[in-house]
Amino acid sequence: MTVIPTLYSICFDYIKVHTEEIVSLDGIPFKPVVENLIHYLVESEVPLNSSILSVISDSHSKSLRSVDLRFTRLNFDAKVNSVYPALKAVSLKFPKFITCLKIGKTDLEDNDIFLLSNFTNLKVLDFEQNQNITDRTVSYIATMSLNTSNGRGLPYLEELYFDYVRGITDKSLKFFAKMTGLRYLSLSGTQVTKEVAETYLTSQGYQISSLRPQDDMLNRFTHMNMLSFVESLSDDFVPVGMRTRYIRSFIDTSQIPLLEFKRDLTRPVIKKELPKAPEKRPIKRQRLIATDFLALVESELANDSRD
């Protein structure tokens, strides 16, 4: 039996075929129109042009961050080949469309983290078991969360996961403190000292947590992976050329205790005020006497004679 297409599907098919002609969706309501359009663009059999994802994120950034869409979550976790070309392509094509990114167990290194500066709507970032990154990555992320000019940076980053990343140490704690929008932080299995982290982070407004926000991270990304999304884009999406890097072996996480923190940003962070330095009184200028005036005159005369 032949299925007769609806007018709705005909319109969406036309949009998908001509997405390169769409430059803005301003004024189009996100619910239900744009949200339904996203589902149709990704799930229909018509090839997807990634340019429309950039248009959607430019016109409806706030809505993308506020709704729970599986299509805005990208999971590169444990990909066999290098993920660098695909991540670079996403960073150039439609970075603002992604709100959750999982890049654990990959070949990404500290110097690759600058690719994330274009992911301005990113809320969740997960590095679990990525053994190629160190404290430098944390310093870069802190910098990107603070420097958000020119349409770049990570102003909305709320959750960070560094579980079982051995390159993360106590040096990273000062960078976490700088990320004022961070609500959840997981440092289980790192080289961060438990006592030091608990003392320092609680002074910054964090509380020790045993429950992760919303769902478990693994369940959060089950519907969104490389095969179902990025690799379904047009053939020219990922640039030619693969990079071979060593992906280190995974860590046995069964016996490692949790080290996780949460923070309620609705409450003001109370910090101890440093004692004020004593006020410096202005130095009273001494009254000039006759000999002082004579010395000034002699100095002026000496300068005139040289000229």
Structural topology:
Blueprint: H1 7-17, H2 30-43, H3 51-59, H4 61-66, E1 73-75, H5 84-93, E2 100-102, E3 124-126, H6 135-146, E4 159-161, H7 173-178, E5 184-186, H8 194-203, E6 207-209, H9 217-220, E7 260-262, H10 290-306
Parallel strand pairs: 1-2, 2-3, 3-4, 4-5
Antiparallel strand pairs: 5-7, 6-7
Write down the CATH topology of the largest domain: Leucine-rich repeat, LRR (right-handed beta-alpha superhelix)
Q: In CATH, what is the homologous superfamily of the largest domain?
A: Ribonuclease Inhibitor
Mean pLDDT: 78
Number of E-type strands: 7
State the helicity in percent bands: 25-40%
Distance between the termini: 108 Å
Tell me, briefly, the overall form.
elongated
Share of residues in strands: 5-15%
Query: Structural class, judged by helices and strands?
Result: alpha/beta
**Number of H- or I-type helical stretches:** 10
Strand order of the largest sheet: 1-2-3-4-5-7-6
Whole-number total of structural domains: 2
The succession of helices and strands, N to C, reads HHHHEHEEHEHEHEHEH
Radius of gyration: 28 Å
Major β-sheet, in short? Answer: 7 strands, mixed
- The low-confidence runs, each spanning 5 or more residues with pLDDT under 50, are 215-228, 234-244, 268-274
